[in-house]
Specification:
By secondary structure, the chain is of the alpha/beta class. The protein has 11 helices and 13 strands. It folds into 2 domains: about 220 residues, Spore Coat Polysaccharide Biosynthesis Protein SpsA, Chain A (Alpha-Beta Complex); about 100 residues, no CATH class.
């Protein structure tokens, strides 16, 4: 690159001293310049600050409270000096050319909003994140295919070349800061997950692309927080349900919204019949929050699609065509 872009790498942390000890050396050792590294801390009570202080080039940004993953990243973007912002989990590590490879792809097209990377598990034994598309498998090698919402399938394919995709993983998303701000940043209402799919979908509504870059490789200790305790796994489960409801009401065609609502009701009935009271309690809390926000969600859905001049049905078909068009 003749004029490499200024990149701000933003790591969200909460009581992740051990994770930071493993991640920060690989960030400060990047070959890309100019690069700044920020750790945005959600009120940690462990030795996270002491770990960060060992790296003079890393900026410690304490929030004093837990603002959540999306909230912390949004705060980090506000204080970032770079023209591109690299949004990161704290349980990652990177080869020295990681940022350079992402940035090289990002600056090729002014319509690019975000770029995504190939993720392996921590040991490098298997791929845990690849090119992400909407719809069932279509002949390409697939590492996963999940039904996120009834009738809505999200698949991850092995691709050897850079390609437009529906979303980038929030664990390693490099975004153009001006577009990120124009979109209002990440939606902090998502408890866990979906905020990355949400913002990339909204970007595509304006014709702003997300590109998958398999040459940019990283390693991710996926789901470690949920494995630590039952409470973590329970929080992840509740957050997934709430995130699906929020995403569907904001962005998906009505037929998928109603299917998801019916599934939620049937799930509640099943848990009652099986006397799974812990799940009933969780579902009840999620349903109450969901129904309280519905009037505002209805208005938000209408505003989003009027502003982008695209109907949900049309946008859904556009997103489905990405994998086929660039297969």
């Amino acid at each position: 690159m003749n004029n490499p872009p200024f990149v701000s790498a933003i790591v969200v942390n909460w009581n992740g001293a051990r994770d930071l000890e493993r991640e920060l050396p690989s960030l400060v050792g990047q070959s890309h310049e100019p690069l700044e590294v920020l750790v945005v801390d959600n009120g940690s009570t462990d030795d996270s600050e002491a770990v960060v202080r060992r790296f003079p080039a890393v900026r410690w940004t304490p929030l004093g409270k837990n603002a959540g993953f999306a909230g912390a990243l949004n705060r980090g973007v506000e204080s970032a000096r770079g023209e591109w912002v690299l949004l990161l989990n704290n349980d990652m590590r990177f080869p020295p050319d990681f940022v350079r490879r992402l940035a090289e792809e990002a600056v090729k097209d002014e319509a690019v909003f975000a770029v995504d990377a190939l993720q392996y598990d921590w040991e490098g034994r298997k791929i845990v994140h690849a090119a992400t598309f909407l719809g069932k498998p279509n002949g390409q090698p697939v590492i996963s295919c999940e039904e996120s919402v009834p009738g809505v399938f999200i698949r991850q394919e092995i691709r050897s070349a850079s390609t437009p995709v529906m979303m980038a993983s929030g664990a390693n998303l490099l975004a153009r800061k001006t577009m990120f701000r124009d979109l209002g940043g990440l939606d902090g209402r998502y408890p866990i997950g979906h905020e990355d799919m949400d913002i990339c979908w909204r970007a595509w509504m304006h014709g702003w692309k997300t590109i998958y870059v398999p040459a940019a490789v990283c390693w991710h200790d996926v789901g470690r927080s949920a494995r630590i305790s039952r409470a973590g796994a329970r929080f992840r489960s509740r957050g997934t349900v709430e995130g699906r409801l929020l995403f569907a009401w904001k962005l998906l065609p009505w037929r998928f919204v109603w299917r998801l609502e019916v599934r939620a009701v049937l799930g509640m009935i099943k848990d009652v019949l099986l006397f799974r009271w812990e799940r009933v309690t969780d579902r009840g809390r999620t349903a109450r929050r969901h129904w309280e926000r519905l009037p505002a969600l209805w208005r938000e859905r209408r505003r989003l699609h009027l502003t982008a001049a695209v109907r949900p049905e049309m946008m859904f078909e556009r997103m489905k065509s990405l994998g086929a068009r660039h297969g």
